[in-house]
Amino acid sequence: MLHRVKDVMTMPVVTVRPDDTLQTAARQMSDRDVGPLPVVEDNVVVGILTDRDITIRAVAAGCDPTRTTVRQAMSRDLVCCQADEDLESAVQRMEEAEVRRLPVIDRNSNLIGMVALADIALNADERTTAQAVRGVSRPEN
Asked: Which of these CATH numbers, 3.10.580.10, 3.20.20.60, 3.40.190.10, 3.30.70.890, describes 5-136?
């Protein structure tokens, strides 16, 4: 059975705003037990913030997490998918970008969900799951 992204995506999504502080974002991650946070401005995804972004781009550089904004540390190179896409297409995007999660957007770039490797593992066939895991787990060259 071919799944669509909308069949397996997680909703609602925990998000942060670009002008939130890194401390606020880290608290969201901790309180909600989530990893990467989509950065949303006017309901449009403008970036994604990971714990690695906070650690490497801000803390290691000596930035104060109570004053540094999400915008200053977020990743801007976004890879998204759409809810109507087939799951194999989303897996291919994950492989190409070597990411474990994709924001799911509508045709107006509004955030409507997230699809993660775990969602695929729980809902897709073994071949699709194995392909996704192999694709996002390639060692650095």
From this structure: 3.10.580.10
